[in-house]
Amino acid sequence: MTGLLILAFGLVLILEGLAYALAPSLVERLLQALRALTLDQRRLLGLSAVTLGVLLVWLARALGTQLGV
User: Fold this and answer.
1) CA 12 to CA 7: how far, in whole Å?
2) Is residue 12 within 8 Å of 20, Cβ to Cβ?
3) Degrees to nearest 5, angle at CA 58 with 55 and 62
4) Does residue 37 contact residue 45 with C-beta atoms inside 8 Å?
């Protein structure tokens, strides 16, 4: 389980790093757009991201179990 958490954290850092390395101006525009949202809108966006993440992890584990991985 610990190895899986380290793997997940590593993948997040890779994706975040790629965004900053390949499209820093896009990141700046995204941050400006986030600043324009209200706190409730940002909270809803965050909760939606968490929900999507949980669903993706569940799907990956379900498919992995079916494939014998």
Assistant:
1) 9
2) no
3) 135
4) yes
> Cα 49 from chain centroid?
7
- Residue 27: count other Cβ atoms within 10 Å of its Cβ: 14
pLDDT digits (tens, 9 = 90+) for 2-34: 887 898 899 999 999 999 999 999 999 999 999
Please tell me the predicted confidence (pLDDT) of residue 5: 83
Q: How far is residue 60 from each of residues 7, 42, 50, 54, 63, measured CA to CA in Å?
A: 14, 27, 15, 10, 5
d(CA 22, CA 46): 24
Residue 32 and residue 26 in contact, taking contact as beta carbons nearer than 8 Å: no
Spatial separation of the C-alpha atoms in residues 64 and 23, rounded to whole Å:
33
